Structure formats: C-alpha cells, structure tokens
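Suppose you are handed only these lines of text.
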Amino acid sequence: MAAEGGGPRCRLEFAVQMTCQNCVEAIQSSLRGTPGLEVLDVRLDSQSVLVETSLSTEEVHGLLEGTGRKAVLKGMGGAVPHPPGSAAVAMVSGPGVIQGVVRFLQLSQEKCLIDGTIDGLQPGPHGIHVHEFGDITGSCDSCGDHFNPDGECHGGPQDVHRHAGDLGNILATTSGRASFRMEDNRLKVSDIIGRSLVVDSGADDLGRGNHPLSKVTGNSGQRVACGIIARSAGLFENPKKICACDGVTLWEEREQPLAGPGRRAASQPTPHL
Ligand code: ZN
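From them, the structure of the protein bound to zinc ion can be written out as follows.
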C-alpha cells in the first residue's frame, strides 16, 4: 500500500513558486539523489517542476515544499505518452471534514496506478472500493455495489477471485490522513470512468472473515466518503505542452493558492472534468 522504491514510475508535474535561477538550482540539488525520483525538468518561466518517480504524489509534494516553496500538483502521467482516457480523478468527500483526491492512471494494459490522499478519516484501516454507479445523489448509498463485471465474490486486490472494484484497505494515520500509492492489475481506467470511489468506516476483511458480509463487501462498515470518478487529462494528452493539468487541487491548496501561473481562482469551475 505504501510507496515502494521499485514500484512503477509515473511522471508528475508540479507548479512551484520560483523567483530566480537560484530557486531552480536549489530545487534540483535538494531532489537530486532521492531514491525513486528523477528530476526531468525545472522551468523558471513556467514555474513548473517535472519529475519521474515511483514515490507517491504526497511524498514528492513534501520534498518540494521542504525546500520552503509552495507546490501544487498539476498533473500525473505515464513515463511514455498514453492514449486519451487513460487518466481519471475522483474528488472524495464525506460528512464532516473528510475529503480527498484520488488519481488513476493506466500505465499499461495490466497496470493501473492509483494514488491518493484523503484527510479527516478515523485513524486505522478503511476499505476502499470502486462502486458501479457514479451517482451520489443519495450520498454514498446511491453508488450501488462494488464494481463487479465478472460476477465474482468479494476479495482482496491480490486475489484471482475478487470484484474488479476491490482495492483493499488504506491506512489513516493518527492525524486522519491516508496517503497511498498502489498498482492494480485488474482495474482499468476506461472501465471505471463515470463510476464512483467509496471509502468505508472500517477495515475490509478481503473476503476472509466469518461475517455474512465478508464475501459481499468485506464487512468494512458504513460508507463514509465517496466521489465520482471523472476522466482527466493526463500529462501527455496535449503533446505540445508538458502538462495537461487535470484541474484538481488539494483542498489545502485551494485555500492557499499559488500566486502566478499555478494559481486557480476559487470561483473558477474545475476544468477538464
Ligand atoms: Zn468487493
């Protein structure tokens, strides 16, 4: 569940406040030598930093802000150009302060990368699943069942027999934040656009429990947060630009937006969704 140095690589573009060439060099030297991360481009004119990495977006974001500069993730893409419709994003929210952003990227036929940060959760494990409907009109209860095109029983992400939407658990720390980067060989981005992502109150038993719901839902409790999975522009959909920004920023970035090119006004509708 946590980022692993040997995991698949993707590209991330961040908007980072830089005022002079010294900033460019400071960022390059502070990131250089980080395992699992390669700096591809740092541009002062467009205030952008492009990296290729097996680290989570949260980790790279932390490294960039560790240089004392505000950074906002603008987009995520594969290491090679991928066809349109290979990237998706879900803005997840629930009662109270639960909110998060989860990005999906189809790295190859078999490999879907899922990267996200969700805040406001109770500390501990939470089941996370793609559900069949992109309908949150009745809160998370109208999202339907776990996405299950093959008529399987509920299982864990590593199981042969599982719902396609079964992504296992994410772990919230004592601060209530769950940051995760996982790869899945069953889920396809093209299959899940227009569906929903739901986070549950408790741990998913991966179909291995004694409870009657174990083989149905993993007995992971109430649905506490959900969001519709929307198509987003991956990094390479517009080859003339490095980044086709997916237009989704983290909540804390919305409250304290960048000055300059990375800035998005609070009143602007979210583009590209
Ligand atoms: Zn399931």
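What can we learn from it? Confidence is low (pLDDT under 50) at residues 1-5, 239-245, 254-273. The domain at 87-261 is CATH 2.60.40.200 (Immunoglobulin-like).
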